[in-house]
Amino acid sequence: MLQAKEALAVANGTGEARWWLGQLAEIKATAADTGGLFTIVEVTGGPNYEAPLHVHYREDEAFWVLDGSVTFEVGGTTIEAGTGDYAFGPRGLPHRYKLGDSGCRMLFILTPGGFEDLVRAMSVPAETRSLPSQDGAAPDMERVRAIAATYGCELLA
Fold this sequence. Notes:
Blueprint: E1 16-20, E2 23-29, E3 39-45, E4 54-56, E5 60-74, E6 77-82, E7 86-89, E8 95-111, H1 115-122, E9 123-125, H2 141-150, E10 153-155
Antiparallel strand pairs: 1-2, 1-9, 2-3, 3-8, 4-10, 5-6, 5-7, 5-8
């Protein structure tokens, strides 16, 4: 049985900050922190950001909206969510999301842990705790697709 080894607290505004596919990702809890049980990543995205349709084969993913609004598509179900709302995407079920006009800040909670390794592989260290500039080149989606496959995910679009 997996079990965390010690207590841990991560203060607001702390945690490993990464610029990940046009969003700010702050890693709050890792598999190493939780005895492999789960990963938590706080993700902030700008207005109307859209994540590609994808599927996780290794972990279940939960979303807790902290600020803003987001539309989830999980399987064939559309879920409109706002501040304080929760949504769940079971492993093996394709999903994506689109942020609202004001953007969104939410927690990604994944079980079991380890998803932070995918985030690190697809991202760069954030220079500031803000959204990355949108002026750069678009992500190399073939590279993103290959990284996703390495970590048990598949981009479907």
